[in-house]
Here is the input.
Amino acid sequence: MTDPTTIRLPADLLPGDGRFGSGPSKVRPDALAALAAHGRAYMGTSHRRDGVRSVVRRVREGLATLFGLPDGYEVLLGNGGSTAFWDALAFGMVEARSAHLVIGEFSAKFAAVTRGAPFLADPLVVEHPPGTVGALAADPSVDCYALVHNETSTGAMTEIVRPGPGIVAVDATSAAGGLRVDPAEFDVYYFAPQKAFAGDGGLWLACCSPAAVERIERVAASGRWVPPSLDLAIALENSRLDQTYNTPALATIFLLADTVEWMLDQGGLEWAAGRCDRSAGILYGWAEARDFAMPFVTDPTARSHVNATIDFEGVDGEALCTALRANGIVDVEPYRKLGRNQLRIALFPAIEPDDVATLTRALDHLVDALR
Here is the structure.
């Protein structure tokens, strides 16, 4: 086989930006330039002073506008990313028992958190094979339903619909900002900024309904012990002051604010989701027209529009990734635990649809060279 590191793509097959990672994702050059321009006055200053709190305020107000949050909904934030927020939900949102839709690695992890919590009943877990989706049904023993909007490990997306009475907590880590959602269908819509929001990691954000806020306050008043760094009541108190309980990464907050405002300036969530739709149409259409590639998710309605998984036959996916990386096209490797001969390609709003089209032509070239 041809050494994939020696293949050089023609200039017209090189995307304008070769970053297609599903997280951390491509950071917009304009956002980096804005950080560089304002960083001297912003970085290295107190997160409890207005120079930073005003940027947090921009984030909270911008997200409320982007998602069309009704009156009474609040945007909370804290340190640790979505992984830490699973722990916070177990401590401060689930009263007795949760139900989990599991369609891949990340949705399974939150179920494992509540299963391990000694103060909660064993969760109800409805699991579907990777690459497929499903739904939860109402259950009177459940007070918190855990849904996932986009399973990052498999490239499968779901429609967010309330299963029944109780808090509905939606893991939107790779979906928020790239997929449409109706706030009436959730109580907690949580995510991190290093995916569709083209920022950096280390922060969690949660759009919370009045019912979710009431649940936070009720659990806090129940006397349940909660580590302060995972205490949602403390996060609520601090978020209302446009700050976090402990020191955040200021660059992360700045990049997030810049991207949220960029999305709003372009037309809001509908514009961002439409941009992802366009990229998804390009990539899936290409795969379906090839004899060596096919979408891993067989149901077209469940194929993610923010990160796509494409299976390959007759060509080594690892060799394709190596050849792409040698040409500056990076981070399209499959999710390691899925163990498939595939590529995983981000389609987030910051990624130019034209670059996705160029990537497909580059793949055609490389497949011919490697087969």
In short: Residues 18-27+268-370 form a domain with the Aspartate Aminotransferase, domain 1 fold (CATH 3.90.1150.10). The longest helix spans residues 268-288. The CA atoms of residues 92 and 223 lie 11 Å apart.
